[in-house]
């Protein structure tokens, strides 16, 4: 399955989720998504916070992201308004941001 470029994204985002699901299967893909959450979360509270996101984006080589961009990323997925992402909010956000998964 070919990847889908998000047309409104100036950075040329490629959506790899559909091909990952095809390759891994739905159950293993969800496990990998949960692993991604664990990599970004603050282990002391089990949530992705601004601080944990900032720290881990630096480790992932995404240090060019500005604080306001990180705050917007959190706000986009923060459904309960606590200023952080739990695992469900993170997974829902990832699915919403994947144009190739929209049916």
Secondary structure elements and their pairing?
Blueprint: E1 4-5, E2 14-15, H1 17-24, H2 26-40, H3 50-59, H4 67-77, H5 87-96
Antiparallel strand pairs: 1-2
Keywords: Calcium
GO molecular function: calcium ion binding
Pfam families: EF-hand_8
Question: What does this molecule look like?
Answer:
By secondary structure, the protein is mainly α. It has a domain at 46-102: Recoverin, domain 1 (Orthogonal Bundle), CATH 1.10.238. The protein is 52% helix and 4% strand. The protein contains 5 helices and 2 strands, in the order ββααααα. Strands 1-2 form a two-stranded antiparallel sheet. Helix 1 (17-24) crosses helix 2. The two termini are 15 Å apart. The model is unreliable at 1-7 (pLDDT under 50).
Q: Label the structural class.
A: mainly alpha
- Number of helical segments? 5
Backbone shape: globular
Give the name of the CATH architecture of the domain at 46-102: Orthogonal Bundle
CATH class of the domain at 46-102, named Mainly Alpha
Number of strands: 2
CATH superfamily of the domain at 46-102: EF-hand
**The CATH topology of the domain at 46-102 is what?**
Recoverin, domain 1
Uncertain runs are: 1-7
What Rg is obtained from the alpha carbons, in whole angstroms?
A: 14 Å
Average pLDDT reading: 82
Strand share of the residues?
under 5%
SSE ordering:
EEHHHHH
Instruction: State the share of residues found in helices, binned by percent.
Output: 40-55%
Order of adjacent strands in the largest pleated sheet:
1-2
The biggest beta sheet, please? 2 strands, antiparallel
């Amino acid at each position: 399955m070919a990847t889908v470029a998000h047309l409104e994204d100036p950075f040329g985002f490629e959506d790899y989720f559909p091909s990952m699901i095809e390759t891994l299967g739905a159950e293993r893909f969800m496990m990998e998504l949960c692993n991604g959450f664990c990599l970004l979360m603050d282990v002391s509270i089990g949530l992705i916070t601004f601080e944990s996101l900032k720290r881990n984006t630096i480790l992932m080589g995404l240090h060019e992201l500005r604080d306001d961009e990180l705050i917007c990323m959190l706000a986009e997925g923060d459904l309960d308004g606590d200023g952080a992402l739990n695992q469900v909010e993170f997974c829902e956000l990832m699915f919403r941001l994947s144009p190739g998964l929209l049916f």
